[in-house]
Specification:
By secondary structure, the protein is α/β, with parallel strands linked by helices. 42% of the residues lie in helices and 22% in strands. Helix 1 packs antiparallel against helix 2.
Amino acid sequence: MKKLKTTNPELMDLIRFLKKAAREHNAKIWRDLAKRLSTSRRRRVAVNLSQINRYTEKGNFVAVPGKVLGSGNLDHPVKVAAFCFSEKAREKILKKRGSCLTFYQLVKRNPKGSNVKIMG
C-alpha cells in the first residue's frame, strides 16, 4: 500500500473512508478523490467560486479535493463538498441557497457518486 504523505489525522481518516466507500459501492470517483487528497499540501487545489459558477448548473454536486475560495460570484444554487472552505466562499454559497458539505455527507447522499463533478 502506498504510504500517505500527510500527517493530518482528520485527512488520513477521510482518505481511508473514501477508499472504503469506493470498494463498498464500486464507485471509482471516491478512489480518485482519495488519491487527489493524499497529495502534498502544496499540490492540493484551490478553486474559486467563479470556476464553480462557470462549469456547473443549478443543483449540481461538486467535489473539490482542496479548498474553495470566495473570489467571484454564484448565479445559481450548487451543492459543494470540499476539504476546506474560506469564510467568504461559505457565505456566498449559502446566500444563493446552495449547501456546503463534507465528503462524508456527500457519500451518504450519493453513494454511487453519480452526477458529481470534480473541480481542480
